[in-house]
Amino acid sequence: MIKYCSLTFLFLCVVSGTVGQNLQPTDDQINLQKYWYYRWRLQNDFVKVGEGVGHSLPIQSRKGIWWVNDIEVVDATIYLGFYIGVLATEYRLLLNNQRYEDVEKTKTELYYAIKAYERLDRFGEEMFGKEGVINGYIARDDIPCDFIDSLVNPDNYRHFNQNKTIAPGTGSVYKIQTSDYCFDGEPLKDLADVKATPEMSQDQVLWLLMGYMLVEKSFDQGMDSVALQDGTRVKYDFHFQARRHATNMINYCRYKYPEKPDKTKWRIFRPDGEKVFPGQNVFAFKYPLSHIGEMMYTEKAENAQPFKKKPGRFQWGLTKIWIPYKNVNGQMITILAAMSGKWGKDVEKTVKRIERTWEESNWGNFYLPLMNYLHGVDIDAYEIEDKVHADLNQAPVYGTHNMTNGIVEDFAKENGIPVSPEGWTCHLKYSSAEKYQNSGYADENVYRGFYAGLDYMLMHNLYYLTAKRELPEYQNLTDRIIDATVIEKKDEGKVFNSFHTIELKNSDSLCYFLHLRTGYEIRGEGARMKMREGMIETRFRRFDPWKPGNIQSNSYDWHEEFKLKKHHWDADYH
User: Fold this and answer.
1) Distance CA 175, CA 62 (A)
2) Could you list the mean pLDDT of each consecutive 10-residue stretch along the chain, which spans 574 residues?
3) Of 37, 265, 431, 454, whose CB is crowded by the most CB atoms within 10 A?
């Protein structure tokens, strides 16, 4: 915090000397800033954090292109697993870098994400007219058809239409085209149709387990203090909650009903006794799931049968015949292998099995760092660091998307947007085959539009947690605010975030501070910080990731040195 006017000018003059050198940032610095732009974009346009119905569930894609004014919320609990994993790893990185104020914000967001899971756990029964309980059976989402209706839910409508990051020319989104609870824009009515109900299936369970294993790994045991949106604080044990929900989910998969612990079936049944369809059969996966269950077990879970045996090793071994992997089978096998560390006879053989997925699906860049972080497995021999680094460099600055097919493609071409950015055409890159990663035309079932970018963010954090190279200091860059009280009177009332560029000129010393952006925080403290008239000249422009130069280079086109500052003003820092 800069507390005095004289210090402010000193700060501006001192840093301008380094800024003026026009040093080019490294790829790692650009990717770090790209990460936080993706996070800002996620918070503004792809999720509404909170405890209400539909809150803290990331949407899959959004358009707002001409008359396609909808969002899709498909497989929301898969996205929730990625989202929880992003926040957990972000927390650990911020904590490692002693970014304590930033840690508080990430904890708050993660708290609401886990609460969203609990809401869906209860809704699993409530959907069938039963009392909602926490037991591991979840609905995929609870987003109603009028979730972003401007008349029924104006707050939600305003939130998802802030237009801070989505492409120029896009309009408002105001309807739900598809969610598992609101299918094709129509509310769910027929619960008797097992093919239409939005319940958990095996892939939902596995990706949620990934999120909870990352929480368990990233958080120490014990109570933490969390700031809520209303300003109050609560005690919350993230480490326990991750174990609790993982234990519940796996045990629900083990038994037909939790009330009958002697009948292990490894099938998923609805609360009304009907089999889930599709995705009810977890029989082939009971061996790795038992190992994960043992690692994550807590006797304090509601559905807390212990994991004394590890059945199904033979069935698990048979999954190897599915190489090369096809569709979701390969995704589920590989994530289970990485989480459990069990596929070959030992860890090394398991790593080699996962490596074989590179040949057809290009998944090694994600699953091996994940296994490294969860289990400390040595992956140096696979040169994975450089592969991940190259993958991150390819991600488009303005966010992942797929603009092929019909109206969406026409819009992209008219606005100069690449129809399908190389390597980032999928809504979840690391759970899609390589042929889908590079061409939007390859999969006609994929929803077109702008994606949340959770795959990039989780991969980026795993890279930071496992790479053995020197990386820039990690901090939250979405909330660096330049307060209007430090700039000219004509600009009072404006608040600039870190993705704007501000040019300040001290007319007395002719000291320029150009491109004030991410990494700096200058706040005024009432009248004490008001500048004398004529002392400061300012210009500002909103950061535009859609500028042709940025689109073509997949970078932020930074011209200043990437220089980080501590939370509060430190006279010795410079």
Assistant:
1) 10
2) 34 38 66 89 95 94 92 92 98 92 94 98 91 94 92 96 86 86 74 70 94 98 96 97 97 75 78 83 91 97 91 83 62 90 80 74 85 90 86 90 91 89 86 77 79 96 92 78 49 58 52 42 36 47 71 54 34 26
3) 454
Phi, psi (degrees; rounded to nearest 5) at 74:
-110, 140
> Both tokens of residue 145?
């058809």
> For helices 384-394 and 27-45, what crossing angle results, to 10°?
50
At 24 the pLDDT is: 61
Query: Residue 212 is encoded by which pair of tokens?
Result: 């909870």
Tell me which amino acid residue 165 is.
T
E-state strands within 348-499: 401-402, 449-451
Q: Are 337 and 350 in contact (CB under 8 A)?
A: yes
d(CA 480, CA 500) in angstroms, rounded, equals 10
Residue 503, pLDDT score: 58
| Residue type, position 347, single letter | V
Peptide bond into 278 cis (omega under 30): yes
Count of residues making up the chain: 574
Residue whose tokens read 């927390």: 91
Strand pairing report for 70-73 and 182-183: unpaired
Cis amide leading into 288 (omega within 30): no
Q: Please report, for residues 62, 149, 169, 178, 196, the alpha-carbon distance to residue 186 in angstroms, rounded to integers and kept in the order given.
A: 18, 14, 28, 9, 12
Nearest to 335 by CA among 213, 423, 491, 221: 213
SS3 512: strand
Instruction: Quote the CA–CA distance of 35 and 90 in Å, as a whole number.
Output: 11
User: 286-296 vs 327-340: helix axis angle to the nearest 10?
Assistant: 40
**Amino acid 181: pLDDT:** 76
Which residue in 346, 343, 345 sits closest to 357, CA to CA? 343
Cα–Cα distance, 42 to 88 (Å, whole number): 16
* 87 vs 242: CA distance, rounded Å: 13
Burial 289-306 (b: 16+ CB within 10 A, else e): bbbbbbbbbbeebbbebe
